[in-house]
Amino acid sequence: MNKIILKIWYSCNHRCDFCHAEFNKQILEKETLKTIKKILHIKKNIKDIDTILLSWGEPTIQSNFFRLLKISSDLGFKTWVVTNGSMLYKKDFLNKCLEYNFKYIYLSVHGGSEKVHNIMTGTKNSFTQIKTLLWNLEWKKDISLSL
Question: What pLDDT, on a 0 to 100 scale, did the predictor assign at position 128?
Fold first, then answer.
């Protein structure tokens, strides 16, 4: 799998101690959908690229997340998201993602317990959301998960 990595968002709904985007969360989206669409059209002409990876901040909370998934899917790309799981644990949200060739989730679990994980992410119910997401994914045979 060869992929395009789009590091286009910094905002996030968690406050992870280790986050590389921690000091840039107030920065708004760096690229407009029009610019992103141009990038994807150019990259589509490179035959070996089949996947778009959405990264930095929390892509799933962005206002244009589903529009970007649709653009990516319409161009024939699979989508991979680096996420904290805070939106994907919701069944309706996850199912809507799956309508757009959404194939890969990269999810981090921190520490050996719920308490440690929630401290690391600075979010009270982060671990519970991840457990729910994992349970919901158990029934999805066409999506890959990396922890």
Answer: 92
Q: How far apart are CA 29 and CA 63, in angstroms?
A: 10
Nearest residue to 28 (alpha-carbon basis) of 74, 51, 61, 54? 61
Residues near 113 by beta carbon (within 8 Å), at least 6 away in sequence: none
Q: Using alpha carbons only, what angle is made at residue 71 by residues 65 and 77, rounded to the nearest 5 degrees?
A: 105
Q: Taking the model in full, what pTM does it have?
A: 0.81
Q: Is 126 helix (H, G, I), strand (E, B) or coil?
A: helix
Q: Is pLDDT of 32 > 70?
A: no
CA distances from 117 to 21, 27, 42, 124 (A): 18, 26, 40, 9
Q: Of 80, 4, 74, 8, which Cα lies nearest the Cα of 46?
A: 4
CA dihedral (94, 66, 19, 4) positive or negative: positive
Q: Which residues pair with 49 in a beta bridge?
A: 2
Q: What H or E segment, with its residue span, contains residue 38?
A: helix 33-44
